[in-house]
Amino acid sequence: MYKFLLLCSLALCFALTGAVINASAQDPDANNPLIWKPERGRLQYGFGYQYQHFDVFRTAFNTHGYNVDVNGHLFDAVTGADGRLTVSLEGMGAFGFGGHTTGTPSLSAKSLFLGAGPRIAIENKGRVEPWVHGLVGWEHLRFTQGPVLGSNSALGYMLGAGFDVKLGRQIYWRIQGDYIGTHFQSDLQSSWSAGTGLMFNF
Fold first, then answer.
1. CA contacts within 13 A on the Cβ side of 91
2. Phi, psi of 132, deg, nearest 5
3. Which positions ≥6 away from 60 have C-beta within 8 Å?
4. Which of 152, 52, 147, 151 is nearest to 99 (CA)?
5. How many CA atoms lie within 13 A of 200 on its CB side?
6. What is residue 4's three-state secondary structure?
7. CA 87, 74, 130 angle in degrees (round to 5)?
8. pLDDT in tens, 3-49
9. How many C-beta atoms surround the C-beta of residue 142 within 10 A?
10. DSSP H/E element including 116
11. Which CATH architecture has domain 2-26+42-201?
12. What is the enclosing helix (H) or strand (E) of 14?
């Protein structure tokens, strides 16, 4: 199952890369001096740490983990001399481990989220760039096997915001927070996460 998910994630990355390279073959803004053009490329890859708090199945637990992220620039919604409002397609995988449920007995817990969706960012000449995103995908929770909890999968989504701090021409430091929604056992659950990491532009 995990090999299949890894292959799907790689396919998403290659699809994003191909779409962005094709879109960047012709850039109508390249020779327009009145439109600000970022130095970085249209592709962005990143990885980082993520802390997640889940409240599902009438129990709560926290996980520490990591996330991998790929963004492909699609178009500029607004452009100007000082910056631009960009729309990108984002794909993300978030892996959590080391969690333990509340109550008796205490069960070990792991999490996995794979999703994709739009990302809107304000790119500018400054060092800080804010953004928002919305991702829809697959949430998987795995607990110590028992009569009640075990391996569970359901629809999941993440709605969040953050900002990127420019460290160098192609490297940014990201800080973000997300609301995590899940739909297990025909019910809706609300959780949250916070993370930080590095983004590399190409």
1. 16
2. -135, 155
3. 53, 54, 101, 102
4. 52
5. 6
6. helix
7. 30
8. 454 445 545 554 544 544 444 444 555 566 667 777 788 899 999 99
9. 18
10. strand 108-124
11. Beta Barrel (2.40)
12. helix 2-23
CB neighbourhood size of 54 (10 A): 24
Residue-level length of the chain: 202
Residue 138: how many CA atoms within 13 Å on its side-chain side? Answer: 10
> Which residue ranges make up each domain of the chain?
2-26+42-201
Place of tokens 């053009």: 37
Amino acid at 167: L
Spatial CA neighbour of 66 closest among 49, 52, 46:
49
Amino acid at 111: S
Global model pTM greater than 0.85: no
Assigned token pair, 22: 């094709």
